[in-house]
Amino acid sequence: MDAAQQEATARARELQRNWYGEPLGALFRKLIDDLGLNQARLAAVLGLSAPMLSQLMSGQRAKIGNPAVVQRVQLLQELAAQVADGSVSAAEATDRMEEIKKSQGGSVLSNTTQTTSGSGAPTVKRVVREIQSLLRSVAAAGDIIDAADSLAPAHPELAEFLRVYGAGRTSDAVAHYQSHQN
Hints:
With about 180 residues, the protein is mostly helical.
């Protein structure tokens, strides 16, 4: 790889960090490890071709162009966390991955069975991810940051909201959400 290719790859990975919270190579490797997948299976669940997944992982491509695929990534991240904490078994995870594979994206609030906890109330993390997904379906993280910078002098709280939910990590958004309740 020559210097120009290395620079382009580094730039793509930085964009991915801004848009998705981390480079897609690291994010996808975590999903592969946490859910016991291989690259071909992950590509199939996400609705990407294997070459496209490879290009995203290697930094040859920066952005996932299809909002439904971005939503599937978020659903897989949530599923991986549930497998890790033991609330979902490996067998249940396999079934859920098939549901995720079939999901068409659309409204981030459309499937109430996945948005609620056992009590019927939406989980904080799920609400936060829905807000993130909605913002990120409207604009790229860099554009959201630019909008936040424009708003900051007159509306600092709104600018912070855009930065945290539009371009930040889910854990930071959850903390922000919880700090602003009651």
